[in-house]
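Exercise 7. Given the encoded structure of a 92-residue chain, write a plausible sequence.
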């Protein structure tokens, strides 16, 4: 019983070490340094991916935070940024 309580406590403490912030959704989301579309659309077109499919992209920003972005492929094969999530570490 005592070891089960200590395992639950350890799991709760570990879960409190990091937090996630959803920065935004929608068409008004601007690319940041590290985004695929930062500085314009990429030169290569995604010709094999179907229109409307999603493209995930993960990178670390200038502050060392993990950023997860989601893009949707448009009819003209351009990428549209639809969501961004930033993971923070409380020890930073």
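Solution.
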């Amino acid at each position: 019983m005592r070891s089960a309580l200590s395992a639950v406590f350890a799991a709760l403490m570990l879960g409190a070490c990091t937090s996630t912030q959803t920065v935004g959704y929608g068409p008004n989301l601007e690319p940041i340094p590290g985004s695929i579309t930062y500085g314009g659309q990429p030169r290569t077109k995604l010709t094999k991916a179907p229109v409307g499919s999603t493209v995930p992209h993960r990178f670390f920003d200038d502050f060392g935070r993990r950023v997860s972005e989601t893009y949707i492929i448009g009819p003209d094969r351009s990428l549209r940024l639809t969501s961004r999530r930033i993971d923070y570490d409380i020890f930073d």
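Remark. Residues 12-19 have pLDDT under 50 and may be disordered. Students should compare their own answers with the one above.
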